[in-house]
Write a structure and sequence with these properties.
300 residues, mainly alpha, PX Domain, Helix Hairpins, three-stranded antiparallel β-sheet, 11% strand, SNX4
Length: 300
């Protein structure tokens, strides 16, 4: 771990910026770019102020990097990315991927992704990953030149391998069942929490409205003015306490989603192992068939 990139370099995703440009179809689109800043740690330990290197990346480029790492290192559980679009949202939250709160949560998630890759003893040494951090132009061409897309296995082939492997590895089978169950349980929990948060938000809105009504009512009532003002204040305080609870719900949901995405990363490794096992069995079967043919030819 001493040689990992995270020990030699500070990596941050410091800000996000809304931009407008043309996509591959030459159509106008709005997207979010993220500023990655890096600084060498070694220079700071020697008493020198290392310069900050910075570049902008889109979410799609993070996706491209992770796809490359997943294909190139099929035996490694590659850290997941934060969600591209908000899932398991409740009424208060926006499902718009341009929503400022969602963009900020995604920025934090992208920074965590980079730090986890940089802390991995194998992934951190990948040249494409290093170029992603340091080289703004020409990086996509460099990734595509690796030909990693040709190594990517189709979903149909993976499904075929799942049902046709004769001697599956028990360790990977158990791991796959564990990740499937973990995904199912967390998905259900997130859906339940979203429903609970929706109801809490309803209570929040009701008490917030009552607080406003009582406050306005107190201004026109002479005898009950103080009582109404006090009631409105308590309604506002209660609504604020619910708002704090809802903020905590968002935080817990983000943590649960990380477990959900890691479960999918585990399943991807298991699927790749099934494919390799299937290819090995097919090769062994073909070898046995060739040997039989050779024996038949030898015996005339």
């Amino acid at each position: 771990m001493e040689d990992c990139l995270a020990k030699k370099m500070e990596i941050t995703v410091s800000e996000a910026e809304k931009r407008t440009g043309k996509n591959a179809m030459n159509m106008q689109e709005t997207y979010t770019a993220y500023l990655i800043e890096t600084r060498a740690v070694e220079s700071q330990s020697e008493g020198q102020c290392a310069p900050v290197e910075s570049l902008w990346r889109r979410y799609s480029e993070f996706e491209l990097l992770r796809n490359y790492l997943s294909v190139t290192y099929p035996h490694i559980v590659v850290p997941p990315l934060p969600e591209k679009r908000a899932d398991f949202v409740w009424h208060k939250l926006s499902a718009d991927n341009m929503d400022p709160d969602f963009v900020e949560r995604r920025r934090i998630g992208l920074e965590s992704f980079l730090l986890r890759v940089a802390s991995h003893p194998v992934l951190c040494q990948d040249k494409i990953f290093y170029s992603f951090l340091m080289q703004e132009s020409g990086w996509k061409e460099m990734v595509n030149e690796t030909g990693f897309q040709l190594k990517a296995d189709s979903r149909l082939k993976a499904l075929n391998a799942t049902f046709r492997v004769k001697n599956p590895d028990k360790r990977f089978t158990e791991l796959k069942h564990y990740s499937d169950e973990l995904q199912s349980v967390i998905s259900h929990l997130l859906r339940v929490r979203a429903r609970v948060a929706d109801r809490l938000y309803g209570v929040y809105k009701v008490h917030g409205n009552y607080g406003r009504v009582f406050s306005e009512w107190s201004a026109i009532e002479k005898e009950m003015g103080d009582g109404l003002q006090s009631a409105g204040h308590h309604m506002d305080v209660y609504a604020a306490s619910i708002d704090d609870i809802l903020e905590e719900e968002e935080h817990y949901a983000d943590q649960l989603k990380e477990y959900l995405f890691y479960a999918e990363a585990l399943r991807a490794v298991c699927r790749k192992h099934e494919l390799m096992q299937y290819d090995l069995e097919m090769a062994a079967q073909d070898l046995t068939s060739k040997k039989q043919q050779c024996e038949e030819l030898a015996t005339g």
